[in-house]
Design goal:
- The chain is of the alpha/beta class.
- Helix content is 29%, strand content 23%.
- The strands form 4 sheets. Strands 1, 2, 3, 4, 5, 6 and 15 form a 7-stranded mixed β-sheet that branches. A 5-stranded parallel β-sheet has the order 7-14-8-9-10, covered by helices on one side. A 5-stranded antiparallel β-sheet has the order 16-17-20-19-18, with helices on both faces.
Length: 470
Amino acid sequence: MNETLRCDVAVIGAGTAGLAAERAARSNGASTLLIDPNFNGTTCATVGCMPSKLLIASSHAAHATRSSGQFGIEVRDIRINGKAVMHRVRTERDRFVRLTQESFDEIPDGVRLRGLAKFVDAGTLSLGDGRMIEARSIVIATGSSASVPDAFAKLGNCILTNETIFDLEDLPNNLAVIGSGSIGLELAQAMARLGVEVTLFDNGGRLGGIRCDKVHAALKTAIEDDLRLVLNVKLKPSAVDAGIRIEWNGDSSGDATFDYALVATGRPPNLDGLNLAATGLALDEHGVPEHERETMQCGDSSIFLAGDAGHDLPLLHEASHDGAIAGRNAVAFPASIKTERFTAFSITFTSPPVARIGKSEDDGVITGTAEFTDQGRARVEGVNQGVLTLYAAAPDGRLIGADLFTPASEHLAHIIAWAVQNGHTATQLLGMPFYHPTIEEGLKSALRTICGATPLALPIDQDRGTPSGA
């Protein structure tokens, strides 16, 4: 088949970023083609956000049941049905995937093309069946895949990634988790709270990318309450009849045998096979085309990146934004439309959640910290643990970032991220209403610390005391 198809904008990849790019291009009047080998659904629905949160939800239920004694409610003979847990994860995941796949039907006829695309030159793609595509602009939105180091990759079915763990029929008896980023932290703690004996390994000493030492210490303590944590070590895995044996050396040494090892050591972009050499684009040290975040344009070419393929911020809201920006600029090419990007903002759904927002103390001169071990509403709910640190710029106390590990921090983090993006000061936030008793009141002490370190006073028309239990 030697057919040549022509369009204004061709998009490679039908994940979150690719779908957003195609929508943006088509809504701006372009003729489009959306190319994907399978049209299976987005990473979020299939192997990411949704199945992981389903597993975490089950772990919350188990933990809440075990913790009910503090409220005078005794629950005996708790039994976790691992097969039922994993069945629910798969059933609900498959529903999310089905809904995503059904959304493909909304794409006009003739726009979807099934196949593997690679570059012939900067404006031409070839598909595996011999068809060619000539496009005025091209968006690369091929996503990312789990990376498994060679030492683990050769060990067979006992090695899991986020792409395979949710297909387990039952919970394992024990599990090694390799890597303490978001995926490793979330799934390690969830499995541990579901009764799996978990050991979390990392070759570094920092969990979840947290920058503040106080917040990191609180996170480390909480994780160690649920599982065995082994940091700053090098690992030597080997296959055994019972599963996998791991030896480690570094700050500590030892060995243990596990049913499975979940490898959560990163998700590099899917760029192999695209024949990027034919584009003439400059590549960075990761083999990713150099691009501008405000336009998603690669150099001055008619090629754009979006989503995890760009190796920037592998988060759904960023991928969606990437796609919208890339699709619009692909239509506008050679004109360039710069977009102000969101404040950097990520959440890891541990219990309590970890959040990282904006810039750090290295970029500012003022910090304010709030402890939640004695915060009123947190104590009422029996979740009184954690710390948050706010970062602000001098001289006005304008908020620039935060690290959080607190109850309801996924909600507090939104408030802080919105304040940072809008350029609000600590004084301005203190001028907002805080209902009592709420977790949100826990922000006040950190905000007041920042105000105390700046020339701007606390709001003069508000009570400077602290309500009982706040």
